[in-house]
Specification:
The protein is α/β, with parallel strands linked by helices. The chain has one domain: Rossmann fold (3-Layer(aba) Sandwich). The protein is built from 6 helices and 10 strands; from the N terminus they run E-E-E-H-E-E-H-E-H-H-H-E-H-E-E-E. The chain has a 6-stranded mixed sheet. Strand 4 and strand 5 form a beta hairpin. Helix 3 crosses helix 4 and helix 3 runs parallel beside helix 5. It is globular. It starts with 5 loop residues before the first strand and ends in a 7-residue tail after the last strand. The structure holds adenosine-5'-triphosphate and magnesium ion (MG).
Length: 236
């Protein structure tokens, strides 16, 4: 099912109608292989978040096709009946803002998704703690989100995006609030995840520290993408 990554063909998105309509995506083509981490880079307002939201079934595209694994999830209309299940089980999101649940502690914020997917509570918490450790926030595991720094909150949100090992991860500026060492740690974890679980990962970023790590980059400008080879710098 998840063998083929992500493919986007001729995707367009228009917001609104008539004179005030905004054509945010214009005939976008993109593919991300299983195990690959690609960068998506472009100026503010170029359509990056719109593209991730379409792919993540958060908003409806206007036209085109999107294929996850072997399955066309969108082809001039949604082809998946249960979009909530698609978002919950097959797509991991890491947003620009962490959106943690304020009344759950850090561990449960991460463990909630596997619990919802049916994992026993202890197993869900163990998996959460494993990721929190990898992201170097295990010492805050029992804390409430409001007591965390911005960077700590972001790392918890990253753990939550990865915890169900979805075949696709969409990350919008995941390293923005982090210092360079932690930003690189996040990129390392994303690359490990990609390789280990055959995950296809798209990272939207302006972060100069992490751009050299991508082997492939999609540039987007006014809703139009073009592909470029990246440096693919290996990091220790
Ligand atoms: N809900 C909306 N209604 C109307 N226009 C929108 C909506 N959301 C985004 N747009 C417009 O679509 C275009 C693309 O926006 P998008 O949020 O995808 O940009 P972005 O590349 O993510 O920018 P940033 O780097 O600032 O986050 C912009 O012109 C924006 O104003
Ligand atoms: Mg954005």
């Amino acid at each position: 099912m998840q063998g083929k990554g992500i493919r986007i063909e001729g995707l367009s998105k228009r917001y609104g109608e008539g004179d005030t309509a905004v054509l945010a995506l214009k005939d976008v083509n993109m593919h991300v292989a299983p195990g690959e981490v690609v960068g998506l880079i472009g100026p503010s307002g170029s359509g990056k978040s719109t593209l991730l939201k379409c792919l993540g079934a958060v908003i409806d595209p206007t036209a085109g096709r999107m294929v996850l694994g072997d399955e066309a999830i969108y082809d001039q209309g949604w082809k998946v009946r249960d979009l909530r299940a698609l978002r919950r089980d097959r797509i991991g999101f890491v947003f620009q803002a962490p959106y943690l649940i304020p009344f759950l502690d850090v561990t449960d914020n991460v463990a909630l998704l596997p619990m919802l997917a049916g994992a026993p509570n202890t197993q869900a918490r163990e998996r959460a703690l494993e990721l929190l450790t990898a992201l170097d926030v295990q010492h805050r595991a029992q804390a409430m989100p409001a007591r965390l720094s911005g960077g700590e909150q972001q790392r918890v949100a990253i753990a939550r995006g990865l915890v169900n090992r979805p075949p696709v991860i969409l990350a919008d500026e995941p390293t923005a609030p982090l210092d360079s060492e932690r930003a690189m740690a996040v990129i390392r974890i994303l690359n490990d995840m990609a390789r280990r679980y055959e995950t296809a990962i798209i990272v939207v970023t302006h972060d100069e520290k992490i751009i050299p790590t991508f082997k492939r980059i999609y540039h987007i400008r006014d809703g139009v993408t073009h592909e470029e080879a990246g440096e693919g710098r290996v990091f220790a």
